């Protein structure tokens, strides 16, 4: 099988950035008319401002930039309750009242999606117009991928993306069915007439990619059997992008009745501020939010017990294999076996250490390896781990790069293609980076 060398390290990303001709420095959009109007409107509802302004950043797109140095413990942003869109906001509207009176019990996300659809349709007649105006017009979640783009994803990502698309299509159908009975009109136009799949998916992505988490107590009128009522859209605050490393304390503050975000990080003036949506792998970030991180240390490659058995068969000279495997199984060490850009998991390292150890054929000796790796033969460990990683690369085969045809071109690689390429190549990149670490870092098998 032919192997193409995977080349999307930092240099590739830098080259892409250059090709895409995004400025290497952030470009402020603080003075864009829609942002000015948004803030003016928010001030009327009690928003007191913050030391953050919108800008377009080379790596992450639109986000928020500091206008001064920020220290750990500082409040980044505070959004008054009146400016949050929650299911309570919907219940206060004529749409919400009709839904509640109909006793049809929609899911929280359906209710919020319908609210956004209605407010967008109302245009300048909507109280929320200035917020709706700054929402992205489209997204890069799987819902915005066409058939060919979905097909160019490797499994199991393709399968997960297809499942998501099917679920949202299903939710659309059931929402469409429900609102037929509602007979809700905006002026003379019925909601049924404006609710197309395109507008539904736009609103669904807005709620799913931008909501913060709030606990609601009263939700008798909603169907919360499969999904909690926790969504809240928070204007301006929802311009903050994600990193895995951001540390914040965030939540609804019952004293000032605002949704507050306090950072625990340090920022210099003009830095981009971040929050952490959660410790997500790139697959999860793509499915939920439509983006990926170039070096995501939350992405993992799983190693199965069957991968371990295959290696043991291949390396038949390893001693006492049957007993060692039995021991690993009994001690439940053949679970959570994985590698990431940070190296191998504790269980995987322990398995490799035990399988490589030149020990007596008894539980005590195996147990000793779990806590003390000094007796293990480093060369055997290295060889076993390298074979395991190489086997996984081989078994996955070659991935078709969607960069084909773009490589020599000066045209920028569209972000969707970057997503496909990164996701398809990530598994191999993680495995190869582990081989490199293994060969160059003597401490690869150290366990905390
Ligand atoms: C809460 S919004 C953040 C603001 C958003 N960038 C905007 O322009 O409105 C979440 C979306 O921002 C984008 N995003 C967040 N963090 C990102 C990152 N680290 N890199 C690239 N895009 C990111 C994704 O499109 C995601 O769905």
Automatic annotation (TrEMBL):
Annotated InterPro entries: SET_dom, SET_dom_sf, SETD3_SETD6_MTase, SETD4_SET
Name of the protein this chain belongs to: Uncharacterized protein
Pfam families: SET (PF00856)
GO function terms (MF aspect): protein-lysine N-methyltransferase activity
SUPFAM superfamilies attached to this UniProt entry: SET domain
Lineage, uppermost ranks: Eukaryota, Metazoa, Spiralia, Lophotrochozoa, Annelida
